[in-house]
Amino acid sequence: MPIDMHHHWIPKGLSQALRARATAPRLVTGEDGRQRIDCSFSSLAQPEGFDDPQTRLAEMDANGITRGVLSLTPVYGIENLPAQESLPLCRAFNDSVSEMCVTWPDRFSAFAALPCANINVATEEFERAMSLPGMVGALVPGDGFLSAKRAQAFAPLLEAANKRGAILMAHYAKLADDPTAPKPDLSDNHGLRIGTLDMQARLSSNMITFCLTDALKPYPNLVMMSHNLGGNIPYEVERLDHRSYMDRPDDELPSKRIRNAKIMVDCNSLAARGIENAVAVYGADKIVLGTDGTAFGMKWSQDAIREARISDAEKHAILDGNASALLAPFIAKLSAAAE
User: Fold this and answer.
1) What is the mean pLDDT of residues 117-139?
2) What is the dihedral of CA 130, 77, 172, 111, to 10 degrees?
3) CB–CB of 151/144 below 8 Å?
4) CA–CA separation, 160 and 125 (whole Å)
5) β-strand 35-39 against 3-8: which pairing, if any?
6) In angstroms, how far is CA 207 from the centroid of its own chain?
7) Structurally, what CATH architecture does the domain formed by 3-338 represent?
8) Using the 8-state DSSP alphabet, how is residue 221 labeled?
9) Do the Cβ atoms of 172 and 74 come closer than 8 Å?
């Protein structure tokens, strides 16, 4: 009974709000009749029925996905808009996905979208969103956690999430007005450098913050989750240990600290060998299914899990068991609200 914890979606409430905008991010109809999101990533064509829940449910059914945890991709840059622009769009998303969760309580849960350019406004919207049926936590921008120092700016939100025992999904995303952000050279192979090399490197830095600093120590009740297997950590953990032996031989090895950290990762876009490495590094109990919410991703990730040379019990845990345990208290509340 696969549960997809990394499941992006544009609900009708948000698509309507984006159509009403005169500037990016906005939804426009091209000369070819296709609808496109005009945003910082140029113009992104949307598939037919992209905001129709029935279309998404049919895709999930075709790929055997029983529940999707809906989230707003940071690609559009909505969370980085000034608060007065971002907040109405985030509310449109949050209210709409909550309605979907009430209508289909057995199929959907949701991460809230937050106007992260202003952490106080973001925290207020988080509190409001968490009162809505179906919400399990929120998406947070990964660049806010490239170091423990950066994470301090998110303390109000972390405190609010901790009080609610919420799940925070740290997704590859930049911060607004961030002059110290990494600036990769994109003069060639732009898509590969951004969509793979830069993304995985920043997710790896997130994991160092989560696992090898005390940034999350004051928040024992929240669950922090990364995507794409936490970047390159499953491939680089031996190098981390090697450097630790050389530089700090009396310290606990990074591999042990990572293994013991309270962190979850999803397996979105990685293949069987990557999943095998991640099981060895994190443990199968720390990994959940992620697909980006596309039919291609749903098939890719499930095929990767099935092909991985891990036990059937470990495959079950990744496909369903771990997510079921994470979502259980939230699903119980959602079921009560839907009655």
Assistant:
1) 97
2) 20
3) yes
4) 11
5) unpaired
6) 14
7) Alpha-Beta Barrel (3.20)
8) T
9) yes
